[in-house]
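Spend some time on the protein that follows and explain the fold to me:
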Amino acid sequence: MTSGLKTLKTQGTMIFMNDTRTTNVEMMLVAGARPNFMKIAPIWRVACQSRNIAARIIHTGQHYDYAMSQSFFDDLELPTPDAFLEAGSGSHAEQTGKIMTAFEQLCTNHQPDWIIVVGDVNSTMACTIVAKKLGIRVAHVEAGLRSRDMAMPEEINRMLTDAICDRFFVTEQSGVDNLLQEGKNPDHIHFVGHVMIDNLFHQLERLETIEASRLSVHGVKRRLDRYIFATLHRPANVDTREALTGIIQAFNTIARDIPIVFPVHPRAQKQIAAFGLELSAHIIQLPPLGFRESLYLWKDAALVMTDSGGLQEETTAIGVPCLTLRFNTERPITLEMGTNKLVGNRKEDILRAAAAVLEPGAGNPSPVNRPPLWDGRAAERICDILADAGGA
């Protein structure tokens, strides 16, 4: 039996103090970027209701801008993190090194029973390596996904994480198949569903209980009849002039007929300016949005255009048509369900695919064809498995 943890921050120093709760399993939930926050939130909520699990949130600071980070904690009803590692920006090597150094000190001072890493960002890989070298067990949420594109930093992070972690929590059958092909122990692979969808359903319920006029984007939505929601952030799309120019030209053409609501990621905004590109007046540019405001907009969009992995899945869960501006996806279940289509980043391909979705009579898929176990209970399954696995 182990005691729970409380973290105090004093002039940047993390001090752990015992609280009075006695638990069977202590876990650290590692979050570094916005999608991570969405995935840890359901696990944290379930753990808070459990007498057997003490969960603490570790924010690596991989995304450190308030609008890109703290607002997501607020929207997701997460508490202030128990520790903030302040990794900040830098090259992949610089950022990974900062995370590893800070996380090693944290784990050396107090070793939990489990480190829970989610997704595929640098924090996921870095904290997995540190924990395993210190003899701490690691569970990977969203394990087994593969794009087969080694030019994607996320693919490298996924493969390295899965190579050494102890438990694999899988969102779709392709993840199970990939892990088995890679020689993983079948007893350690758990097809649990998707915590991202747990969070989606929770937030849809919350939207029903709040006054929409309180949302900063309410006025934008109220004045639009039919619209597209778009996001863009991946280096393959925004860091090269040819790719970004083609995408922006496609957006400008489509916006002549139907307005596009476009929360502009800082990376995309920087590159749009650097390449001297101009966006149509019919493209409504917004700053980065919190999860709830983003959901409020895209859930009723005629079409979503994105290079985000999470939006591919969330749109699939509620049947919103999605065009993914990539040439591959590690989430093939979204293609099988019929709501998502890979279109790449070439102007002509984007225009052709958008026209097919938006033409009169195309409509949304009905009824929603939801993947197996995407029922809002993945976090419960994860916590049950970890509680059964017990402490060290």
